[in-house]
Amino acid sequence: MDKKAIAIVGCGNIGSRHLQAIAKLPVTVIVDIIEPSESARRLAESRLTEVPHNKSNLHLNWYKSIHDLKFGGHLLTIVATSSIDRINTIDQLLESGHSRFLIEKMVCQSAKDYDTLLSKIKAHDAKGWVNTPRRYYKSYQEIRECFGTTGPIHISVLAGNMGLGSNAIHFLDLFSWFCNDYKISLGEALYDKVFPNKRGPNLVEFAGTIIGFSRDASILEVSFLPSNEDMPLIVSITTKDMHLAINESKEKFIAESNSCLSNLKFQNEYVSDLTARIANDILTTDNCLLPTLENSYYSHCELFRIFNAHLKKLTGMERELCPIT
What we know:
This protein has 325 residues and is of the alpha/beta class. Helix content is 34%, strand content 23%. The chain folds into two domains: 3-131 and 273-291, Rossmann fold (3-Layer(aba) Sandwich), CATH 3.40.50.720; 138-268, Dihydrodipicolinate Reductase, domain 2 (2-Layer Sandwich). It is built from eight helices and 15 strands. The chain has a seven-stranded mixed sheet, with helices on one face. Strands 3-2-1-4-5-6 form a six-stranded parallel sheet. Strands 9-10 form a two-stranded antiparallel ribbon. The longest helix is centred in the last third of the chain and has 23 residues, at 293-315. The protein is globular.
């Protein structure tokens, strides 16, 4: 049987979910995993036992460092490390022959680093996609088909303490996908403080509202409120003819105004399933529904801009790197 070689760089909380998904692929897979932490490896191995898969089709090799890994014709490399210094990680992978990447958000921490990464990807004739996977939710695919892509659209997202710095990119990409525009300009009304980031002491989180404007007058509002951790995640989508509101937390439609939505059921989908579909698309077609690195560039740069401007207002200091991941 033909074997597929896949690499996972970083196999902690998110990386272990990617591994669960890869285990579900209906082919024989050799997975080379770079993870220096023994506790992360134990977590990943434990999580593998939680998902049904054919153990004889899955061959795992564990490495402590990129330098220990020899390129073995990997058809896909999943990069699930922190955004801190990630471009150097990808640069090393490119130099050793890797050329197809699924990269966790945020891709990096500055527009300068993003520019460097795009230049390196182009120089190696490589491709990369950013893992903002709501495009792969079957529910959102059906909703987008029902709404169509003509005329301005308004998307409003309201949630509790989810981390605006880490998660705004998901809804910015959803908005870009719905209105077919990757150059979304952003404004903000953020809280006059920063919040702890669970992913590290040198990272911060934000709360408040981000407002996005597309070139066809579509509008996005994303509001994360730090005072209520139990607040459900509500997504409202409106055009001049249709309206829909979703409680993602409870997987329910809470309002709808069009017959084509009447039989839809909203369902959250998770990395442990979605990555199998994404990887299969890349392996079979050399493409997928996710935004490419080029597609996601402008959104990343706008987020870097507004968050760093807000930090300058709070601290008086200019920043080159945006401390989010």
